[in-house]
Amino acid sequence: EEEIRNIINEKELFSEVAAMAAIIERTYFDFCEDVARLAEREEISRFLALKKIIEEKKKSLVRELLREKTEGGCSLKKALTKFLRRHNLQKRAEEFLPLSQKRRRPLPSIHVLTTLGPGESEFNVKNWLEEAMLLFNVCRLYNLDP
Questions:
Q1: Same domain, 79 and 115
Q2: Which domain holds residue 131?
Q3: Minimal CB count within 10 Å: which of 94, 100, 111, 130?
Q4: Alpha helix locations (H) across 31-146?
């Protein structure tokens, strides 16, 4: 991932990265149940399940974009601009722009050793994970992340 980030920085592909993030997010929302089922069935992360869905589903927006880009013969930037407009994703891509230079955040994980009952442990773990994700978002909002 670090090599990819270097290329993005060198070629200043920030708007393209933000556009792709908006398209991938919409793809996730379109196929979120499929992603969840695949992740559970194959015991893989949602990230890998989404990657697999994008590669395999013919109706994913990413595949649609690649088809149009190949058939249209225009630049990626131009294809993305048209695609975002058609799918009403320009605003979302703009919101992703400040994040386009940041590293992908690792998923939070915790190991809990407790003497609490099963229901109590599950409740506490859920709260801890939500707090960890909330703190991450607050740090990112105020540019406190490394």
A1: no
A2: 105-146
A3: 111
A4: 32-42, 46-56, 61-72, 76-86, 90-96, 118-141
The pTM assigned to this predicted structure is: 0.71
Same domain? For 85 and 109 the reply is: no
Is residue 44 left, alpha or beta, with left meaning phi > 0 and alpha meaning psi from -120 to 50? beta
Neighbours of 40 (CB within 10 A): 11
Among 60, 77, 52, 50, CA closest to 23: 60
Query: Are residue 74 and residue 132 in the same domain, yes or no?
Result: no
User: Which of the four pLDDT bands, split at 50, 70 and 90, describes residue 146?
Assistant: low
Domain tally for the chain?
Answer: 2
